[in-house]
Amino acid sequence: MTEGRIDIHMHICPSSFHGALTNLNVAGPPCSTSAGAVDALKALNVSKAIFSCSVPGPSVAGSGAAGRELARACNRDCLEFVKGDPEKLFFFAATPSWVDVEGTLAEIDFALVENKLPGVVVMATYEDKLLGDPMFVPIWDRLNALGAIVFIHPTISDIKPPLIAGKLQQFVADFPHQTTRNALDLVLSGTVTTHPDVKIILPHAGGTLPYLADKVLASCAPATSISRDEIKAAFSSFYFDVALSTGRIPMRALLDFAKPDRVLFGSDCTLCTPTDTPKEMADQLDKFLDTEEGKVLAGVISGNAEKLFKGKL
After folding, report:
1. Rounded distance, CA 209 to CA 216, Å?
2. pLDDT of 149-163, one tens digit each?
3. Sign, CA torsion 190/193/195/200
4. How far apart, in whole angstroms, are the C-alpha atoms of residue 235 and residue 246?
5. Is 0.85 topped by the overall pTM?
6. Bridging pattern class, strands 125-126 and 129-130
7. Residues 216-247: pLDDT tens digits?
8. Around 160, how many Cα atoms within 13 Å sit in the side-chain half-sphere?
9. Element (H, E) at 126
């Protein structure tokens, strides 16, 4: 494909974050470099990339002052990183743990008001709280006032056992389920309905949300204060990336559930790590787009992102 992709789902490990992970004895990717970014964009035919701090994000440092400081350090590192190629490199700002409401509000203003960044990346859960928790209403209020773009990413959680069959990492099977739980929480708590100016991006084709949506409508609408129409409207407001989800079955499910102009390209490539799997998935997407049923998704390469991020890239 000759048209350059806009990749809204790339990961970076800035030096401050890498240092924090090392000090806390938490495993993580290598520190990202400009050369790694150039190689990744070239391998994936990406013309513009929006990257975000790798999981678990600054909340790894806790919900106090250390978490605030790490979020600010990550964002300052990324601001310097994108100066290497400001026409191609962009990033979603990191925030502290949302349990630190005041710290999160301050970082949102630093990112979106002071530095005009395209949006923020948020972990799907903080200290056993999903994002529709009442504690987080002031954060959603601020994001709504700013008309912010929010990229929600699943993260490592304290589930038992932590690995399936003692070996399968959480990102393979548990992350899609966590995305689904969080999306449903945002819808059924009324957060999406009461904050209509926030644009929420769900990764990995929405996890299992397209598969479960009809069941949720049948089971939950009668038992909540939110009407069936409001739930459907909330579902339709989400944006989705196709990171690591470009097979025929997930793509068909997503097309049956989401509006074509709400689907964005994402590779889930981490800078400085091999691009083999992301490239295989991107090539698989190209093959799907060449089919009759895939033609409706022509905008996934760049057009849909251009509309969503108008004036921000």
Report:
1. 9
2. 999 999 978 888 888
3. positive
4. 21
5. yes
6. antiparallel
7. 888 876 667 788 888 999 999 999 999 999 99
8. 0
9. strand 125-126
